[in-house]
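Thread: "does anyone have the structure for this chain?"

Original post by V.I.:
We have the sequence but no experimental structure in hand. Need at least a predicted one for the grant figures.
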Amino acid sequence: MALDPFEPLLDQARAHAAEYLRRLPDRHVGALAGRDEMLSALRAPLPQQGEEGGAVLDLLAAQAERGTSACNSSRYFGFVIGGAYPVALAADWLVSTWDQNAGIYVISPLVSVVEEIAADWLLDLFDLPRESGVGFVTGCQMAHFTCLAAARHAVLHHAGWDVEAEGLCGAPRVNLVVSAESHITIDVAMRYLGLGTRSLHRIEADAQGRMRIDRLRERMASLDGPTIICAQAGNVNTGAFDPLREIAAVADEYGAWLHVDSAFGLWARASGRHGALADGIELADSWATDAHKWLNVPYDCGIAIVRQREVHRAAMTSTAAYLIQSQGVERDAVDWVPDFSRRARGVPVYATLRTLGRDGVEGLVDRCCARARQMADLLACEDGIRILNDVVLNQVLVRFDDDDDITRQVIVGVQREGTCWLGGTVWHGMAAMRISVSNWATSEDDAEASAAAIVRVFRTLRGGRHV
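Reply from O.Q.:
Generated one for you, tokens below.
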């Protein structure tokens, strides 16, 4: 096929992408335009004859400066969003160019083998059981779904029930034990799996958001029947880790399945300095994490890991007469994820891991944690600013004048000011600013400039109130 239809448009797209990246370090970090402006620029009746492709690209690119948040900026600290490491972005372009359906080996041996190797590298990097099953999904939401589907299969099979064949009607009720600080995606996965949320057993957490092991033991002693425990490695607000080794011992005592929500915390295992935070995580039965957080690959890429490969496969695999599925050692992705048709998500993971190596991933994690501590230290020097959490990882919770309204006003003011972008949360009934440092490019200068901007906005608000 001739390149003529593609080459001019690809050149044009590359030029727009390069310009967007060139402007990234100095641009207003938040979005400047809202729905009305974007609709005004982009809405039109669906054309009868169609428009020239280059004009459409120009139209879209022209809105990017105002209509996007600079999520890949080195001063974007919202929602635990990583940037895009250069080789990851380039590899993702190749994924789109190849346009492979990564569902089964026969369609794309290249993608199958790349994802097989990437999976092995991840297990090695995290020092998890090497026999585990690994699937590349959209994000941690579907990683939880996948892992908890395996958990549902395992605990009900042990109770003598085939949930894949019989469904849940008439099945033994599964006890679902979660932290009071569990992420909402755990609840959503329970809903998707038909397990429900009304009867979740929520275990009290301590001041940093860690599950209290004494409360877990009390609750487990009162339960009977198949049980799934969900622990957390990296609280979404504080970055704190549940006492995983102790939780694993309780799960083992009661024959419960232990799943760990480690959306970003699992990457601490790659760091000699921070790995001890996740002590005991290797004892779990399943783990969910994201590559589009700390590995800084483009959206979307989550990772589901299940210790027992055959349980993982039994919960996910599908067969059909028309499919040509592997009967040998070749990897069919459909065995490990809910998707049939899917993007080759493992390719940017492979490219980034091979480019960074162990030392590079460790450096990435350590730098982000250091920048979080730097920002916390700078902000704590200002009278009226309080850091609410122990900064053990990459998360910082900040409160201003011990006042909900002022704290929320500072957050909005910082977003409008544009040096950096961050969001808010409610922590133990208090409004708080939430800073998450997850970008490979965030430097000491970025942290200093961002902290200075936050202090500047706070001082302006204080001055306006004549405090």
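V.I.: this helps a lot. The mean pLDDT is 96.
O.Q.: and The chain has three domains: 34-65, 91-352, 358-464.
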